[in-house]
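Dear H.,

Thanks for agreeing to be a second pair of eyes. The structure we're designing against is below in token form, covering all 537 positions.
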């Protein structure tokens, strides 16, 4: 089963402003029925719209199916449930504490009030949240698009997709004719959401021919993977990948080992299901019919185990299954077989410094660094040590791990994609004073508060409590303006030159932005000789 584009009738024709319903609130006809939004200042919001059928019961571990319709007017004022994840409940911007459910495949649309929109048909920005494919949701503060939509220049969409063992472990080897199991479920959800956008976004004033897909962290990985996914071809016109671990897409042999280890853990938690063994029917029954808390508990154990057993590997990730993902995305990009869309890609100055404690997933410890070195040609080791003096000292080790996971893969994508399509590269270097004092600097995710105009949330206020809040907000405003211009036209300002392998022009976002050519050349040269193949974590 897969989500077919032709099953959803497309809303064609001129832009239609959302019509006021009997209550005066905006009603929109989408596939499935009418949904009623809410007005919040200059922004209209519709939340919790199903873009696929609930993946529950016999649809667990199946590709997303088209959504069912509803009668009457659907309330679009509340978010849908988040995907199941082993994290604490928290309050999102729009109110009540999050709740989770396997019935999580919903999306949200935000559009400017008609009087604010500066065009009849606006570009569409579709954001994919991060969280390591293990946590996160469209309810997170950084998933809300008021900062973009409030300018009157874009329609904004974000969505939930399946996470962890329900979305990003490959159990397809246990598929049977009676109970099929498909691979890359979270990725398929993302494609289904983009298909929904193509079919419905005109009703919200959006232009389906000007869709920009963008995401950060795991969401950035989703962007680079979607570029190489045949089923996603034509669903977006431009792409932005922020802090993308683009290498984290793995061959089926490795993902099968992770699935087997997961099922062994699950079996050990339920000894009555027989001796743990992934091919046994009782354990398979736990997978297909077991409780979500049991699946999440086993997933947490696997997640903690993976960074030590497979240094540099991320067990919750897309799989090169030969069908939905026919080849590694970086190989597809390098050969020109990926979507040749304009791309913005970049990272933050010190991506790895925040990965400590429960977030310690990068190869930053001496044993993990040794594991990465063991897979690289010995003759390249001295060059890598010269590029990271003092390795494995903690600060240098954090930079090594961050560059392994985020910076160098993003650099490779930029190099290769620039041969076929326009590419612009950035590095976010702005760090409020407190982050510099505690040694985090411009770490992973720090740009998100500024980019989404959310420097007022408690964590953003805390990190700017010793100064820098205004400059931080201005850096985000400039970044947001560039993202909007790119969404509108696929271009950026004249002060940000395109990237190619001759100059490697990179926009450095700081208190005052500037352009550097081939920054960190020494590190780049070391990685180009040293880097293990992405299918060998």
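And this is the sequence the design step returned. I haven't edited it by hand at all.
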């Amino acid at each position: 089963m897969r989500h077919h584009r032709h099953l959803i009738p497309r809303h064609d024709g001129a832009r239609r402003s959302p019509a006021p319903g009997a209550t005066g609130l905006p009603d929109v006809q989408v596939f499935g029925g009418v949904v009623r939004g809410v007005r919040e200042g200059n922004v209209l919001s519709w939340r919790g719209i199903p873009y696929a059928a609930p993946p529950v019961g016999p649809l667990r571990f199946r590709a997303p199916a088209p959504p069912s319709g509803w009668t009457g007017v659907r309330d679009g004022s509340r978010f849908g449930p988040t995907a199941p994840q082993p994290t604490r409940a928290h309050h999102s911007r729009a109110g009540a504490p999050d709740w989770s459910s396997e019935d999580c495949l919903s999306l949200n649309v935000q559009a400017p009030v008609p009087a604010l929109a500066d065009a009849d048909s606006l570009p569409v920005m579709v954001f994919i949240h991060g969280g390591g494919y293990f946590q996160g949701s469209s309810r997170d503060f950084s998933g809300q698009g008021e900062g973009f939509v409030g300018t009157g220049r874009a329609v904004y969409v974000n969505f939930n997709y399946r996470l962890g063992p329900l979305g990003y472990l490959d159990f397809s080897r246990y598929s049977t004719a009676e109970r099929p199991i498909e691979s890359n479920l979270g990725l398929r959800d993302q494609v289904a959401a983009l298909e929904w956008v193509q079919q419905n976004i005109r009703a919200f004033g959006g232009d389906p021919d000007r869709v920009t897909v963008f995401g950060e962290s795991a969401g950035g990985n989703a962007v680079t993977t979607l570029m190489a996914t045949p089923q996603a071809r034509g669903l977006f016109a431009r792409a932005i990948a922020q802090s993308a671990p683009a290498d984290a897409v793995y061959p089926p042999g490795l993902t099968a080992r992770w699935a087997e280890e997961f099922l062994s853990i699950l079996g050990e938690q339920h000894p009555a299901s027989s001796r743990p063994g992934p091919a046994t029917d009782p354990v398979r029954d736990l997978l297909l019919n077991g409780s979500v808390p049991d699946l999440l508990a086993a997933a947490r154990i696997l997640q903690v185990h993976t960074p030590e057993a497979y240094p540099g590997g991320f067990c919750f990730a897309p799989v090169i299954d030969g069908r939905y993902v026919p080849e590694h995305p970086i190989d597809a990009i390098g050969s020109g077989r990926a979507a040749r869309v304009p791309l913005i890609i970049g990272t933050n100055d010190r991506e790895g410094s925040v990965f400590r404690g429960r977030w310690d997933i990068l190869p930053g410890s001496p044993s993990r660094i040794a594991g990465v070195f063991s897979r690289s040609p010995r003759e390249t080791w001295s060059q890598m040590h010269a590029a990271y003096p003092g390795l494995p000292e903690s600060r240098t080790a954090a930079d090594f791990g961050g560059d392994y996971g985020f910076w160098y893969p993003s650099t490779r994508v930029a190099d290769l994609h620039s041969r076929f399509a326009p590419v612009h590269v950035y590095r976010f270097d702005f760090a409020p004073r407190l982050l510099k004092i505690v040694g985090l600097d411009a770490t992973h995710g720090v740009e998100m508060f500024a980019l989404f105009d959310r420097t007022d949330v408690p964590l953003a206020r805390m990190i700017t409590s010793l100064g820098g809040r205004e400059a931080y907000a201005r850096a985000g405003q400039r970044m947001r303006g560039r993202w909007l211009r790119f969404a509108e036209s696929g271009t950026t300002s004249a002060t940000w030159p395109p990237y190619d392998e001759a100059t490697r022009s990179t926009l450095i976002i700081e208190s005052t932005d500037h352009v550097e050519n081939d920054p960190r050349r020494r590190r780049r040269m070391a990685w180009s000789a040293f880097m293990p193949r992405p299918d060998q974590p």
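Two observations from my side: The longest strand covers residues 206-216. The first helix runs from residue 146 to 149.

Warmly,
E.
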